[in-house]
């Protein structure tokens, strides 16, 4: 083989390896960023009421999103015909769900919150079948059953009882996951042509303003009582989890197909459980580990329908044989 060809091949392999390494590193950053979000929320609501905390997070993030939109020369306003959709995104993706998450974490551990929220892709699957008429395969149904049965056992093993306020926290977190899933599916219908920067920037600013005003009116927070730990958590949520996680995630959308990238929602709860248990100084029980693994495996099955994979492989085999 000529030396020039060998050098060219080596350089090509080096670039491929570097690209793969960078993609893997970015994937890990997203998992860590979103895995630590739940602990950040937990610390924030220690001394800031949930409505106000959600609003402050977005008000901190909004200037950076605005700057990013200016640098990319992206519009921040939705098309005129999509103003109703903008209101829907502001309310059902940012405002209500993040208040519910903050409220839920007042009663539920950060790790369990992440596990509960990891059900969101399953709700996407269900809404896709109802609204987009997409097919749900038998293996996906089995995955849903396994996942939610495991979730029930996790809640039971953690000592959350139906008569306690912890149940309200669990329901609030599941409601937030449900609303996010609905918003993703409606976005697929009505917002596919809207850039991700436009999609996020103005709704984050509006949600932050509305949540803060609602918090000032309903919660009347005492800002002199807010601890440095909570301010630090809010800054982390606004600057790193919201902006940093957003930028890296949508950068990965250009490098990875949706299926492997969607496994972020399966992996980040693992980080959240470990980090939350470390911070709260409590051991991770074998029951929690076992049921969590089963839950995430069930939700992973919903992303990889066996029937669809077998049909695809069969079609490829038939094509090769001909």
Number of helices: 13
Please give the largest β-sheet. none
| DSSP strand content | under 5%
Helicity, as a percent range: over 70%
Provide the domain count. 1
Mean pLDDT: 82
Q: List SSEs in N-to-C order.
A: HHHHHHHHHHHHH
Tertiary shape: globular
Low-confidence stretches: 313-322
Q: End-to-end distance, in Å?
A: 34 Å
Instruction: Report the radius of gyration as a whole number of Å.
Output: 22 Å
The beta-strand count equals: 0
- Overall structural class, as computed from helix and strand content, comes to mainly alpha
Question: What can you see in these coordinates?
Answer:
- By secondary structure, the chain is mainly alpha-helical.
- The chain has one domain (about 5-305).
- The protein is about 80% helix and about 0% strand.
- It is built from 13 helices and no strands.
- It has helices spanning about 5-45, 50-70, 85-105, 110-115, 120-130, 140-155, 165-190, 195-220, 230-250, 260, 265-280, 285-305, 305-320.
- Helix 2 packs across helix 9 (about 230-250) and helix 4 runs antiparallel to helix 11.
- It is globular and about 75 Å long.
- The model is unreliable at about 315-320 (pLDDT under 50).
Note the topology.
Elements: H1 3-44, H2 50-72, H3 83-104, H4 110-117, H5 120-131, H6 138-157, H7 165-190, H8 196-218, H9 228-252, H10 258-262, H11 264-280, H12 286-303, H13 306-321
